[in-house]
Amino acid sequence: MTETKNNNNGLKVIAGLLGVVLLGTIIYTVSLYQDKKATTEALTQEKELVVEDLNNLKSEYDKAILESNATNEELVAARDNIAKYIDSVSAMKADIATLSRYRRQVSVLKAEREELLKQVDSLTQSNSLLAMQRDSTFAELEEQTVFNDSLIIQNTQLADAVEKGSALNLSTISVDAIKERNSGKLVSTRRARATDKFKVCFTIADNVIAEAGDREFYIEVLGPQGNVLGEGLTKTTEEGSSLTYSKGTNFYYENDALDVCDYINKPSGDFQDGNYMVNVYDSKLKLLGTSSFELK
Q1: 4 belongs to a structural domain
Q2: Which letter, b or e, does each residue of 137-158 get, where b requires 16 or more Cβ atoms within 10 Å of its Cβ?
Q3: For 168-192, how does the pLDDT look when each residue is reduced to its tens digit (9 = 90+)?
C-alpha cells in the first residue's frame, strides 16, 4: 500500500513538472509570435514611410517639370529613377537591412533633388533674363524700324520737295507768225499765206536750287485740225509717257532767269487759216506753258 501510494505521488510530481514546462513553452511561443508581429508591423510602417518619401520626391519632380518652360532631361531621368525605386520597394519583402539601404538612398535622392532644383532655378532665371533681353531687343528693333520708316518717309518727302522746288518753270510765253522779206528782215504778220515760220519765245524763271547745266525743252505746235506741225519727233520718258513734238530746243541754264526763242518752219505748202496752239514741255514732259494765236 505504501509503495503504491509513493508511486502515485511521483506521477503527480512529474505531471506537475510537465504542465509547468508546457505552460512555459506556450508563454514563450506566444511571446515570440507577438514579437514577430510587432516587428512585421514596424517593418511595414517603415516600408510605407520609405514609399511615401519616394512618392513625395516624385511629386516634386513632376511639379518642377511642369513649371519648367522646356523639358529638362535630367529632371525627367531623376523622376523615372524614383518611380523605379517606388516599384521596387512596394514589391519587396520588408527586412531591416533592405529598408536601411533604401532609407539611405532616399537621403541621397533628396540631396540630388536639391542640387537639380538649384540648377533648374538658375537656368530658369537665365532664360527669363534672356527672354527679357530678347523682348527688349525686339522692342528696340521695332522702334528703330519705325524710326527708319519715318526717316524714309521724310527723305522721300524731302526729295519730292527738292525735285519740285528744283523744277524749272516759265514766267512768260509768246508766239509770233513771222514773214521773211527778200532783204532777210523778219517781220510779224497775221496772214496765213504770208507766214513763213513761227517764232516761239519763253522766259525761264530763276531757280537757285535747280542744277545748272544743259537742258532741253520740247515745243509742240498744233494746227487748226489738231495736227502736230514741224519735225514730228517722239519723246518717251522712263515712266512710259510719250509726246510727239514739233521741235526740241536746247539751252544752258545757270539758275538765273533766261529768255529762249526758237523757230518752227512752215510745212510743205502754206499755213492754213485758223487757230493754233503752242505748248512747251520740260524733259520729263511736264507741261510748262501754253499759248494760242490765229492766222487769217
Answers
A1: no
A2: eeeeeeeeeeeeeeeeeeeeee
A3: 888 899 999 988 888 878 888 999 8
